[in-house]
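Hi U.,

Before I forget, here's the chain from the pilot set. I'm dumping it here mostly so it's searchable later in email.
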Amino acid sequence: MLDAPGAFASTHERERAEPDDRWRDRVARRACFVAEVDGEPAGLAIGTPSYDGLPARRDLISLWVPPEHRGHGIAAALVAAVVAWADRDGAREVALWAADGNTAAAAVYRRAGFAPTGRRQPLPSNPATNEEEWVRTVPR
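Structure:
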């Protein structure tokens, strides 16, 4: 998060201030996937029920791979894990929001079958930047 603050809806300071019990509650209500390389964390992705309340949709709300592990397919594997979870959970589509200018993430999402919907909004952590919704169907 510190290496790409403009890519996230929250800020490092806001997340760091959250108490431990709030973090435990978040993890309990979401599908969390951690990639490892040589036993060390190498990426994170989180899926959740739709924030829009759509019963057939799940949201990919977080994807992060540290710079030293980028370019090795870890992000793609994490996205695939969230899509597979959404499928097992009965979803028909997965949605996410991508910040403008985050071309590396956009490339990962496009290769994973996501497409921009045209729906846009200000990035919550920095309203001077916009983000766009992307959606892909879950294969059946």
